[in-house]
Amino acid sequence: MRRYFEIKHSGIFAIIMTVCVFPGCAPPAPAVAPASSSCVTGVSQVLVGDNYLETGCGCAEGNGTVTGAGSSFVCTLKAKNFVQFIYVGTQLTHQIDSIGSPAFANTPLLGPANSPSPGLSQAFGLQISTPGTYQFKDAFDASLSGSFVVQ
To answer: Residue 2 above 80 pLDDT?
Structure first.
C-alpha cells in the first residue's frame, strides 16, 4: 500500500508519494535468531514473520531457512516432536491454519505484543505424533503456506 498526501502550497497542488511503508513491499526479512537462543531436543521451531516463515531449531532443513511469501515452507521433524510457532513479526496478525488431512490444531491469533488488539499470542506449541505430511496456510496472508513432514 502506498500513501499519498496532497500538499497545497501557494495555490499549487502536488502529490507526493512516500516510500513503501507497509509490509509486503519489501523482500522477506533476513534470518533472525529464534526467540530462545538455546535449542531443545524434541522441539521444532517455526518463526512467523511479516511476509515470511523461517525454520528455527529442530527442523531437518536447518536453522535459519527463510521462505518468503509465495514459496512453500517445509519443516521435516520426528513424530512426537513439539512444534513451536514463534511470532517474530512487527506489524501483522497471523494465524496458522491446518488444511487437509492429516490435521493439527490451528494456532491462536499471533501478533505483536504492543498491538492495540487484545489477546494476541507471541507463541503457540503443539505436538504432532502421527507420521504424515501436514499442510498449512496463514489465515491472514494466504501466500504464506507450507507443510510439516513428520517421520
So the answer is: no
Check if the beta carbon of residue 46 is closer than 8 Å to that of residue 56: yes
The 10s digit of each residue's pLDDT in 56-87 is 999 999 999 999 988 999 999 999 999 999 99
The position carrying cell 497545497 is 8
Instruction: List the domain range (segments joined by +) for residue 79.
Output: 28-150
The reply to whether the predicted model has a pTM over 0.85 is no
Distance CA 56, CA 58 (A): 7
Average pLDDT estimate for 20-25? 34
Q: How many domains does the chain have?
A: 1
Distance CA 29, CA 21 (A): 14
Confidence of residue 106 (pLDDT cuts 50, 70, 90): very high
In a domain, 133, yes or no: yes
Asked whether the beta carbons of 112 and 90 are under 8 A apart, the reply is: yes
Cβ of 60: how many Cβ atoms within 10 Å?
13
Residues contacting residue 1 through CB under 8 Å, at least 6 positions apart:
21, 22, 24, 25
